Fold:
Amino acid sequence: MPFDRRGFLGRLFASATAPAVAAPPSAVPVPVQTPDLPKLPHKLVDGVKEFTLIAEVIRTSICPGRILDGWGFNGSIPGPLIEANEGDRLRIIVENQLPEMTGIHWHGLEIPMEVDGSVGLGMDPIPPGGRHVYEFTARQNGTFFYHSHFPMQEMMGLIGMFVLHPAQAHTPRVDRDFGFVLQEWDLKPNNPVPNSLAMEFNWLTLNGKAGPDTTPMIVRQGERIRIRIVNMGMDHHPIHLHGNQFFMTGTEAGRRPEATWYAENTIIVGVAQARDIEFDAKHLGDWMLHCHLPHHMMNQMVPMVGPAMHHPVHSKVPGYPQDMWMPDDEIYNDKPENFGLRKGWSGAMMGMMTMVRVVTPQRYDQIEALRKNPPKVTLPKGEAHQHQHGEGK
Ligand SMILES: [Cu+2]
Structure:
């Protein structure tokens, strides 16, 4: 897509000169979709939105056959999305079902120090079996996150996205709003417990899934899309979108002025940062969205050591083998969002990788029908579809 200079300058000009006109009431923000991740429910108690966040040990699967025994929230690694509005009074009850103390920090929020969650400075640690009530008014909007304020617990998975919506949608209003949490895992063979001391990682996930097990984003051609990405690992991730230029419209500190936007197709999401990108989905296609670090586009990397490296083929061709191609479509084709993908598609999807599928209205309706009435899933042998809740009790 060529850079749409006229459109960009037109918007820039308009934002610089047009009087501030309040958006119509229909322009409320669309809810955020986090593929493969649940949303944390809340109840309204005397005008306060009350959430219960349970830190616990969780067994999950990041790819068929690859179990992760990590730590997360409410049965999910990363934790479920917390979604609320600017101006809301929030009460978040954190229950610690971990075998050790913890404390949860609300990253990027301007709130009193006593509820910031920095253990030691503003509060005591929450002991195992204990609970702590955080209550504050949300005075910002944007993409934030929550995480354990103990670093090794972060590396075990205790992280989640926290979105605060403005009262009226930012302009241009998006039709769809997606959110992803990036994580890294060092999983040794035959050990589902991540090595939290690692500096190198062999499994890379988006919302707790490695490609091709990540669920694609489905959008209709012509819609405007926002994707929010949060990174809480050891590495910075250059996230690349195929076939579409986008604008970075927000950071972990909220919305950026439109005059500062410029076109990109790769954006570095640094550690502890959030990045919002937006684009008009003009081009039909199954467009990859992935970290571009070569190692992060892989699953189950292993060093080239040991007897296998002395095999005759290996000694004739130094460095062989390197890349692999293991399409296994049938494991994933039961997922409605994968309907209609080209044969062999799963061979291309690994590691920190997902897709934006820009589809025709007809294809969109087909996928929607499948989502409402999902096909019967036949899981292959060895599939780890376990989701044990509350193991840490
Ligand atoms: Cu990366």
User: Anything to note?
Assistant: The first helix runs from residue 5 to 17. The chain has a mean pLDDT of 89. Residues 235, 237, 291, 293, 296, 352 surround copper (II) ion (CB under 6 Å).
